[in-house]
From TrEMBL:
Lineage: Bacteria, Pseudomonadati, Bacteroidota, Cytophagia, Cytophagales
Cited Pfam families: E1_dh (PF00676), Transket_pyr (PF02779), Transketolase_C (PF02780)
Cofactors (names): thiamine diphosphate
TM annotation in the entry: none
InterPro entries from the UniProt entry: DH_E1, THDP-binding, Transketo_C/PFOR_II, Transketolase-like_Pyr-bd, Transketolase_C
Domain Transketolase-like pyrimidine-binding: 472-646
Superkingdom to which the source organism belongs: Bacteria
Source organism (scientific name): Hymenobacter ruricola
Keywords from the UniProt entry: Oxidoreductase, Thiamine pyrophosphate
Name of the protein in its database record: Transketolase
Keyword Oxidoreductase: yes
Ribosomal protein is among the record's keywords: no
Function of the protein: E1 component of the 2-oxoglutarate dehydrogenase (OGDH) complex which catalyzes the decarboxylation of 2-oxoglutarate, the first step in the conversion of 2-oxoglutarate to succinyl-CoA and CO(2).
Signal peptide segment: none
Length: 806
């Protein structure tokens, strides 16, 4: 069914009076929570607030259609929904507003995300997935509007795989035969984002159970719908997605007013049934919503809404309309509803008080402990300095934060730096170290997995080679690796442009779709952002996707979602969720501006929380895939684009051997200069090293193999102890990954003290590489560049032995 207005309130008549009054209570609790939250911000007890007022009633309807095993990917106004499905308490709601870093008090983000960013803890204490079919699940929200859409697509796509692939039926803790619906929510203005349209198109193509709700209150902050959406109606412009009949491709589209309780209940039940049973995507356009407090605590909507609009919003507030409906239908009396509203206010007041106490009392206790230690320090050293003033300021602060405590301790220690190390000083030092460690756990931990499946815990298995094994094209090594892994683990699948039928543009999947089927190795449209999102959502649900970006240059289409969603997922949930997605791509040397990129600086700065593997050949790449497919962490693997037809030997254990991440490999030993590089540059550097040896310069060539993590055992520093000179070389822009490597080696590893010469960085030109072989030669470092850079270092040291060339 699709309609311009859903009319038959069938479901509402099946609910009991108790159901109606429960919904009314939850709606008013949510409203009072929004009102109280705004006041807490203005009182200085919270930094910022954004709330779900005006959206309460449609969220109650959505919650009644949401079942165990279902998933949500929403945005920051869904507080009513989260409470209604039992995955948020009002005390937790306020704990997040106050940024309580205790995951027991604030399980969604442990205080790391501002309020309204909801998530359920899908992992147990050991980092393993819980039984996702027995709970109502919410993937972790992100602030970039529209950013939930790619992940939503993947959550729905997983249901399709679980239903249609019999091999996955052995994992009942992950899915109930694919019956799970992925519920998405978004504001009307954010439907202008490209990710929204891309995800909807992909859902229609894939025919997955994705139920998308658009909360339409006519504005995007201060910008009204006429500036946002053609025809001012997202459902009107998407009617071309509407399927022509049951069994036909496309969407079901419903339009329903956000204050019409009965119609909302009916619409969501009908829509969820279609979605769940038929695996048909659904769009519900919820219109005529209001936003009583405006967008957020950053401003007032009276500045941009007319008096007529404000008057209309008052009359069409969904809570007022729900009250009118309950009274008109005889489901409640005025007295009953008044009592519910008063009780709801009291409930929120109690939750707010309890949350503030749970948040602030531990900080006060920490302050008091610090003050006691500081008083002892003052007694030991007197009051000639400003320490007493520091202590008094901390004592007098009515609402100290942990930074105030640590700041005071650090400044106090400055004051006594010339004094004898007394017992009081040692106690302060010890206490400061303890607080710094505790706060590192609160605010800096869980960037990577803490489980037994973390990359560092995967057993290293060396590659073995049969005697006399013949060499093959590099692509065949990858093909054999993927073949073995797909046989080993039925949860692994691969998607991407041209991955399926032709086996990817470089043939590493050649023949594997025919062998394993289209559900395991699948072609996609040209849509890099949602290819990655498809993988993120599926990985959240326990599958092991490999998503391919055809060329590294096109990673820019997906870098935002990799950065904002995938890379920080374990961090922003403090270990509550994980998505071990592998993004496979190829880059570095080939031809032209958009097919030979090496934008490593962009990648390294954007996706901390993912591993970045930069293998020099396909055997190394296979070893990384074997490691990553056994771990539970996300990674980007950048294969060398010009290496698929170079000859390599297939390991006899091609699907089992593993490579550790973060361990460089010495490709050639030397005593004069260390050259650090990776990827396609390895062959160029090795060629230059051979030529340098002819003139008496012995170069140690090191392939870092992975940039994240980077040289965890400080092998490069050990090399510099011997050579005392270093060149960092790659194909990124100047100051890119070469500077990244230099900082790690000289700063973090402290290898500057071993140098007798200035460290050198050899990078590409500061522009995209030009087309043709000449374009490559003059755009990127070549053999002669490497030779000359190393030779110049030696010429500075021994000019008589190595006279200037030019």
């Amino acid at each position: 069914m699709s309609s311009a207005e859903t009319a038959l309130p069938a479901l509402a008549t099946t609910l009991s009076k108790a159901d109606f009054l429960t919904d009314y209570r939850l709606a008013w609790e949510s409203r009072h929570a929004s009102l109280a939250g705004r006041k807490e911000v203005f009182m200085g007890k919270a930094k910022f607030g954004i709330f779900g007022d005006g959206k309460e009633v449609p969220q109650l309807a959505m919650a009644r259609a949401f079942q165990n095993g279902d998933f949500r990917a929403g945005y920051y106004r869904d507080q009513t929904f989260m409470v209604a499905i039992g995955q948020l308490t009002w005390e937790q709601y306020f704990a997040q507003l106050y940024a309580n870093p205790d995951p027991e008090a604030e399980p969604a983000t442990a205080g790391r995300a501002m309020n309204g960013h909801f998530a359920t803890r899908m992992l147990d204490e050991d980092g393993n997935l819980r039984d996702l079919t027995q709970t109502k699940n919410s993937s972790a929200d992100i602030s970039p509007t529209g950013g939930q859409m790619p992940r939503l697509l993947g959550l729905a796509y997983a249901s399709k795989l679980f239903r249609q692939n019999p091999e996955l039926h052995q994992f009942p803790q992950l899915s109930n035969n694919g019956n799970e619906v992925a519920f998405g929510t978004i504001g009307n203005a954010s439907t202008s984002e490209g990710m929204f349209f891309e995800a909807l198109n992909a859902a229609g193509v894939l025919q997955v159970p994705m139920l998308m709700s658009v909360w339409d209150d006519h504005y995007g902050i201060s910008v009204p719908a006429e500036y946002q959406t053609t025809k001012q109606s997202i459902s009107a412009i998407l009617m071309g997605l509407q399927r022509e009949g049951e069994g036909e491709p496309g969407f079901e589209i419903y339009v329903v007013r956000g204050w019409d309780y009965a119609a909302l209940m009916d619409t969501y039940q009908r829509a969820a049934a279609v979605c769940r049973e038929q695996h048909v995507p659904v769009l519900i356009h919820v219109t005529e919503l209001t936003q009583p407090q405006g967008h957020s605590t950053s401003g007032s909507h009276e500045r941009y809404k007319s008096k007529d609009r404000l008057s209309w919003e008052e009359a069409h507030d969904c809570l007022h309309k729900l009250r009118e409906w309950l009274l008109a239908e005889g489901h409640a009396t005025e007295l009953e509803l008044d009592d519910i509203e008063k009780t709801a206010a009291a409930t929120i007041k109690a939750a707010r008080t309890a949350a503030w106490t749970a948040f602030f009392d531990p900080i006060k206790a920490e302050r008091d402990e610090a003050v006691a230690l500081l008083d002892k320090l003052v007694a030991d050293h007197g009051t000639e300095n400003t320490m007493r003033e520091l202590v008094e300021q901390l004592k007098a602060n009515p609402t100290p934060i942990r930074a105030d405590i640590v700041r005071t301790l650090r400044r106090a220690l400055r004051q006594v730096r010339h004094e004898k190390r007394s017992a009081g000083r040692r106690a302060i030092q010890s206490h400061l170290e303890q607080l710094l460690a505790e706060n590192a756990d609160r605010y800096n931990s869980n960037l990577f997995s803490q489980s037994e499946l973390a990359v560092g815990n995967i057993e290293e298995v060396p590659a073995t080679f049969a005697p006399g094994a013949t060499q093959v094209d590099g692509r065949e090594v990858l093909q054999a690796c993927f073949d073995a892994n797909f046989q080993r683990d039925p949860t692994i699948f691969a998607i991407g442009e041209d991955v399926g039928k032709i086996g990817d543009v470089n043939q590493a999947f050649a023949g594997l779709q025919e062998k394993f089927g289209e559900l395991r190795i699948t072609d996609t449209g040209i849509r890099e952002c949602t290819i990655v999102g498809q993988g993120i959502g599926a990985a959240l649900r326990g599958l092991r996707p490999i998503t391919e970006i055809q060329y590294l240059d096109y990673l820019l289409y997906a870098i935002q979602i990799l950065s904002d969603d995938l890379a920080c997922l374990q961090y922003r949930t403090k270990g509550g969720q994980k998505a071990p997605l592998i993004v496979r791509t190829r880059g570095h040397r080939l031809e032209g501006i958009w097919h030979s990129g090496s934008p490593m600086q962009m990648i390294l700065g954007s996706i901390r929380g993912m591993h970045v593997c930069v293998p020099r050949n396909m055997t190394q790449a296979a070893g990384f895939y074997n490691t990553l497919l056994r771990s539970d962490e996300p990674a980007l693997v950048i294969e060398p684009l010009n290496g698929y037809r170079l000859k390599e030997t297939i390991p006899s254990n091609v699907g089992e051997f593993t490579l550790p991440l973060g361990r460089p490999e010495v490709l050639q030993t030397g005593t004069d200069v260390t050259v650090v590089t990776y990827g396609s540059m390895c062959r160029i550097v090795l060629d230059a090293a051979r030529q340098l040896a002819e003139v008496g310069i012995l170069v140690e060539v090191i392939d870092v193999q992975t940039l994240l993590p980077f040289d965890t055992d400080h092998l490069i520093a050990d090399s510099l102890r011997k050579t005392n000179r270093v060149v960092f070389a790659d194909e990124d822009v100047p100051g890119g990954a070469t500077a990244f490597m230099l900082q790690h080696v000289l700063d973090e590893q402290g290898a500057y003290r071993f140098l007798d010469s200035q460290p050198r960085c050899l990078a590409a030109q500061p522009h995209r590489p030009a087309y043709s072989s000449d374009g490559d030669y003059f755009s990127k470092p070549n053999v002669e560049d490497v030779f000359d850079t190393v030779y110049e270092l030696m010429s500075e040291t021994a000019p008589e032995k190595f006279p200037e060339i030019y």
